[in-house]
């Protein structure tokens, strides 16, 4: 199995062609090995596994991003919810779970970012 090809397919399905095309266009010789590793491991192995659904994976990812305070990734994964079947209510549940186990301040920041991103997505759809 070609993990890179699988990873690119899953990455495009979850994040969308426009996002992946921008990321690929911005790839340089310096970060190409890192981008390939992410494509093969995160997308070609973890996200490609069908043990849990893309919806569940999105919820877990968002909760972990909030818990580890990796806020830069939250808007991208909130946007991906449109492709994974993850509702706004699901996102809120993930952040509420993170609040209980990782702390209210990190979940509060995640909620703020998600709210802003959902608002942007609604404006873009009009």
From TrEMBL:
Molecular function in Gene Ontology: peroxiredoxin activity
Annotated SUPFAM superfamilies: AhpD-like
Domain Carboxymuconolactone decarboxylase-like, chain residue ranges per copy: 34-115
Species lineage: Bacteria, Pseudomonadati, Pseudomonadota, Alphaproteobacteria, Rhodobacterales
Gene3D superfamilies referenced in this protein's UniProt entry, alphabetically: AhpD-like
Protein name: Carboxymuconolactone decarboxylase family protein
Annotated Pfam families: CMD
């Amino acid at each position: 199995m070609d993990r890179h090809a699988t990873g690119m397919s899953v990455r495009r399905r979850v994040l969308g062609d426009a996002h992946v095309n921008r990321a690929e266009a911005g790839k340089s010789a310096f970060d190409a090995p890192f981008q390939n590793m992410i494509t093969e491991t995160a997308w070609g192995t973890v996200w490609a596994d069908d043990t849990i659904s893309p919806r569940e994976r999105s919820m877990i990812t968002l909760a972990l991003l909030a818990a580890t305070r990796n806020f830069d990734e939250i808007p991208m994964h909130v946007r991906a919810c449109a492709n994974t079947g993850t509702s706004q209510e699901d996102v809120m549940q993930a952040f509420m779970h993170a609040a209980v186990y990782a702390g209210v301040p990190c979940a509060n920041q995640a909620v703020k970012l998600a709210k802003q991103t959902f608002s942007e997505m609604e404006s873009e759809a009009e």
